[in-house]
Queue: 3 jobs
Job 1
Amino acid sequence: MPGDVYSTPKYLFDDVPAPGELWEVAKGVMWLRMPLPMALDHINLYLLEEDDGWWIIDTGIAIGPTQALWEQIFAESLGGKPVKAVLSTHYHPDHVGMAGWLCERWQAPFYMTQAEYLSGLAFSRMQPEHFSWSSERYLQRAGYAPEQVERARERFNGFGDYIKPMPTAYRRLVDGASLTIGGRRWRVVVGSGHCPEHACLYSETLNILISGDQVIPKITSNVSVMAGEPEANPLKDWLASHERFLDTLPADALVLPAHNAPFHGLHTRLRHLIEHHEEHLLALEEACVEAAPTAMELLPVLFKRPLDDSQLGLALGECVAHLNYLHQRGQLARELSGNGQYTYRSIDDTLRLRLRRNRAEPDDQAVLQV
């Protein structure tokens, strides 16, 4: 495996395409952007060309101008050729939101991993009544106050508003399998952590990785524990996936991510993402040395900016993911307090002594200076 020749991400373009505009990143590989109605205001989608049609990789969200932009692309940019297949890297609404409509529009097959397809079906069909006692208990144990639990109940509605009815059939993607598109072999590379079974595609011929949300150059994908699986350990899966990508994918691959822009520097970015979470783990462990905080009380350790209700759920899920990782690895003790909240305490005596020593050193220095 060659060394990482890019110490920082090197972007393929100095600009980005306008919504609905196609840019060629390699022969037969087109990049386009669709708008998103949130702080992260775009998603990157990719089209792969064959002699007799096109593959769509990820679909955009099912609100706003997405459908009209797709119709514009069909009319102006595909050279009169049909859509042959639709593939979603994972089940989140910006990636699968238009899949059902596209497959019906073109009577095209739908490709997805099994865990993502089933997760998409479940989340797209959730109703407010699915906020159950288990949802309430998860939030309570994480440190939500009763009024915060009620606000979360009022906001709960699944993904149905952002996803067209999903395709009623799919073709299963599995790790290591191959798709032949445009005469090229695209290997399915499955990662986990951000979602259960995220599919990336790698072409050795082009040395291109379509990475979805598994590797993004500027932002870190959310890695969360949710109420439906409160003891999950997605951060363990996330870190293991990135280590495996380092071992099995070349450092000089061109990465086509779902957000930001195509870039070189895969190994540098993977190492940065691993280090980012390891730093968060250490910071949380240190915050639990002499106190026994809840997950809610630990949010400022991970997030320095204020969080509103729309951000709080994902932030809490990320914090719990780190705490579950440390607890299940035996680095944090977890206890259920009398008010039904989990509290955490470090059980690493070496860390406790080191922190006390570090706090003492500045005082000694101050005396010397005087």
Job 2
Amino acid sequence: MKNSLSKDLDLKGKKVLLRVDLNVPMENGAITETSRIEKIIPTIKFLSEKQAKIIILSHIGRPKGKVVKEMSLKPISEKLSFLLKKEVLFNSEPINEDTKLKIDKISNGSIVMLENIRFNKEEEINDVKFAKKMSNLGDIYVNDAFSCSHRAHASIDAITNYIPSYFGLQITEEINALEKITNKIEKPISLVIGGSKISTKFKIINNLIKKFDNIVIVGGMANTILKHTGKNVGKSICENDSSVLVKEIFKNSKKYNCEIIAPIDVVVSKNLNGHGIEKNIDEVEDNEMILDIGPKTISSIEVMINKSRTVLWNGPAGYFENPNFQNGTKKILEAISIKTVNDKIFSVAGGGETVAAINKFKKSNSFTFISTAGGAFLEYLEGKTLPGIKALNQNV
């Protein structure tokens, strides 16, 4: 990408507005998962080594333009400081002339984090005056928040009209990985996709059918496929009004010669806390719910993965939060990991639950690329143009 951060840029003494996504999970004021904080460290170190003055813009939660104490970025600034082993100054005041004076005084290579950008109501409405006000704080702007780039917000979109703007290291890596999955494909290419509702991922499936050789549908989505192909799914999570979507998926799979794979056996229980019973898909009873895929289905997925050169995984195979129903997700994860490490295939995983599963089974080093983005990741796979990406490409 033409407007990416590069070693050739002279950043010494330059004030760099760095937009990142620090929307991390918190409980009782404590950060419970740090992946998104860790992801931004390479860009911060790059800018710091270049002797830039780094001003971090970010958000947490949805305060709706109001100051919400529990959504302050202060604890996150402290965690970032700990991970960097470097002081991160925190500015709790609203953006004003005094903010600019404080930033001007910091030394080269220093880092200051501004308070939650969404405490300003102008942020989410993409207000141009607010964007210009933010731009006056810096000399250049860097977007390293792919996971926010599907939002047309002031610190993502409008700001690029008022200041020289660049892609950060993380967002460049993310886009390159997804480009390779969707446009620069090494075949055979396979998708493993799960989640509760097929309607929310229908556009992704329909977009990728044209390019992929195999699509494995698991989780609650698979129940909808099974029901509309005449199988009894008992009291499993299922969309009853999606027959048109299912028909179109199968119609397009034939048109583009993409194999659709659904479970042939499952693990069932009468409730989420129960013990699993393995059954063929024709044996599910009315008072049972499908909570995982069975061993025959796992074997067929492993065979498919072992024949693939490129694999994309989004969504667990079942209710993996209960150890009785985690085997399908765990086995898929292990199969992709082994194939990636041994045969150097290109593997990408993304989505909140997917990343949670990867972290749970400690396989974060076994994929070519792991995306911490949620909505942006999915919208990119649908083929949508993300506002944050479009804004940067327009303002080269």
Job 3
Amino acid sequence: MKKISCTFALYAVLSEGIMGLVMKKYVQDEVLLGLWEIDEDFFSLYDRLDLNEAEISTLNSFKSYNRKLEWLSARVLLQEMVGQGIRIYYNGNRKPFLTDPEYHISISHSHRLTSIILSRTRRVGLDLEYVTGKIASLAGKFLTPPEEKAVSRRFRRYHVYIYWCAKETLYKICDKQNINFREDILIDPFVPEKSGTLTGKVHTNAIREDFVLHYFKYRNYAVVWCCK
């Protein structure tokens, strides 16, 4: 029998309607994107998985109940996308990998949404955020003056969130190594729509790459992904 922390006896979180898998789609050849909306309790997610002892230990180490749900939902989503038997692990930079080394993977969580992008042939990056005023209020810390100037007055909050997610996506696809969000990741001006593409670049002493990114709005979330 799988052993889990007894602290979960304190939680009686019951879902009124299971949302679960809301997207499983090939967004490009060999690039699979999945979205999972968390509307389940801990045990509903936990019982769908066959966790090993190391994974159970990691799960029990999280103090936050929501963090446990995020962790479980990513593994349930991965199982829905590629089947059982493939597990997620992380390197020293907290970059995710799979036990099947043929896959490239990127993962993102925010609020009640979890997303995974996978490819066997391309590097991938992904970020999503629940759109509130939090990140928009910090725009000056990660946007350059030209980027700030390009932000829509009418749709400022959503526009800034796409910028943030785009920079996070490029940060992830470049392995999170010695990259400054404001100085090293540059996003070209774009007009925010419900979905679209934009371009950006990562320029450091070690990296000089240009990228095409894709974004869309799902409910109140901004989602950005990239492959190369």
